[in-house]
Amino acid sequence: MKILRFDIYFGLMLAVAGILLPFVHPEEALIQLVTLSAIWAIFAIGFDFVFGALGMVSFGHATFLGVGGYAVALATQKYGFSFFTGTGLAMVLGAVFALLFSFFALRVSGIFFALVTLALSQLIFILADSKLRAFTGGTDGISGVERPNLFGIDFYDPVNYYWFVLGVYALVMLIVISLRSSPFGRVIASIRSNETRADQLGFNVNRYKQITFVISGGLSGLAGALLASLLMYMNPQMLHWTTSGDVIIMTLLGGSGTLWGATVGVIVFEVLKEWLSGWTNYWYGVLGLVFILATIFFPRGIVGGLEKGFAAYQNSRKSRERGVK
Questions:
Q1: pLDDT tens digits, 70-90
Q2: Are 62 and 125 in contact (CB under 8 A)?
Q3: CA-CA distance, 114 to 28, in Å (whole number)?
Q4: Predicted TM-score of the model (pTM)
Q5: Beta-carbon count within 10 A of 82 CB
Q6: What's the CA gap between 91 and 179, in Å, rounded?
Q7: Residue 3 in 3-state DSSP?
C-alpha cells in the first residue's frame, strides 16, 4: 500500500482534531460519541482489511465483534480476570472464530462467500440469544463490564477512557499500515487485482486469504472488547447481522480500500445517526437515502473522492509551474 501525501495531510488533520477535542469541547456527550466512533473505526478498519484489501464481502464480522465483547464481559464479571486479560482473550477468540468461518466460507467466492458468513453469523447469534443464555444472559445481557485498571488512572472518567481508546486506535492504524505496506500486503493486493495470476506466481491464495481473515477477526474482537467496556454492557444484539450491515455501509461511505475511509465513514455515519435519531424515528431510512446519494456522487467513497480532487489539484499546480518555467 502506497502512502500518499494526501494520506499524511489527512492523518495529521485527524490527529490534531482528536488531540484538541477534549480541550476545546469537553462536553461528556461529545466525548462519548467520538470515543464510540473511534471504537467503531477500529472495527471498520479490521473489516476493511478483508473488504478493501481482498474485495471479499463478509456479513459475519458481527460475530467477531460480539465474541470480543462477550470475552471481556465474561472474563471480568464472571471469572475475575483483568480487563487486559479479557481483551487479549477477545482478540484471540475473534481470530479463532474468523479461522473457523474461513474453513467453510473460503470454499466459495463472491455472493456465496457473503451468504455463508451471514448464515454462520446468524447461527452464533441464535446460540447466544437462546441456547447459551446461561453464559450470555440472553436478551438481558451482562451489565457492569469493567474498564481498564492501569497506573491508578480512573478510566470511568469519559475523557480518560477517550485517551485510552484513541491510543489503541493509533496503534491499530500503525499495525494495519505496516501490514498493508509489507510484502504480505503487496501479495494481498495482487490477489485482489488478479487472483489467477497470483496463484500462477506460486502464492497460496487461500492461505493468504485465511491469514487476512484471521487478522481481521482479531481486530474486530479488540473493537468488541472496547465497545462492551465503553457501554459497560453486553448483549446478543452486537452479534446480529445488522451490525455487519452497518460496518459495510460505514466502509463504503468513507471509501473502501483507502487508508482513512473506514474512519471517515464511521464518523459520518455516527454523527448523522445521532442527529437524525433526534429528528425522526425513521432515521435509518433517511440514512439509507444519504448513503445512496453518496454512492452516486462519490462512487469511491468520501475519502476516495477527496483523494481524486487532491490529485487533480496537484497535477494542475505542477502544470502551471511547468508553464511558468
A1: 999 999 988 889 999 999 999
A2: yes
A3: 38
A4: 0.93
A5: 15
A6: 17
A7: coil
Residue 187 identity (one-letter amino acid): V
- What pairs with residue 233 in β-bridges? 143
- Could you report how far apart the first and last alpha carbons of the chain are, in Å? 34
Domain count, the chain: 1
- The pLDDT tens digits for 191-239 are 988 888 888 888 899 999 999 999 999 999 999 999 999 999 999 989 9
Interatomic CA distance for residues 237 and 226, integer angstroms? 16
Distances (CA, A) of 128 to 93, 267, 322: 15, 29, 64
Polymer length in residues for the chain: 325
Which helix (DSSP H) or strand (DSSP E) does residue 143 occupy?
strand 142-143
Residue type, 103: F
Q: What is the mean pLDDT of the chain?
A: 89
Cell of 74: 465474561
- Helix (H) / strand (E) containing 150: strand 149-150
**Alpha-carbon distances, residue 325 vs 303, 318, 321, 322 (angstroms):** 33, 11, 6, 5
Domain containing residue 21: 5-324
Beta bridge partners of 153: 150
pLDDT tens-digit readout, 126-153: 999 888 888 888 888 888 888 988 888 8
CATH number for the domain harbouring residue 202: 1.10.3470
**Contacts of the segment 34-37: beta carbons below 8 A, 24+ positions apart:** 34/162, 35/158, 35/161, 35/162, 35/165, 35/230, 36/227, 36/230, 36/270, 37/266, 37/267, 37/270, 37/271
Q: d(Cα 99, Cα 104) in Å, to the nearest integer?
A: 9
Q: Rounded to an integer, what distance in angstroms lies between the CA atom of residue 135 and that of residue 120?
A: 20
Q: Report the C-alpha gap between 64 and 94 in whole angstroms.
A: 5
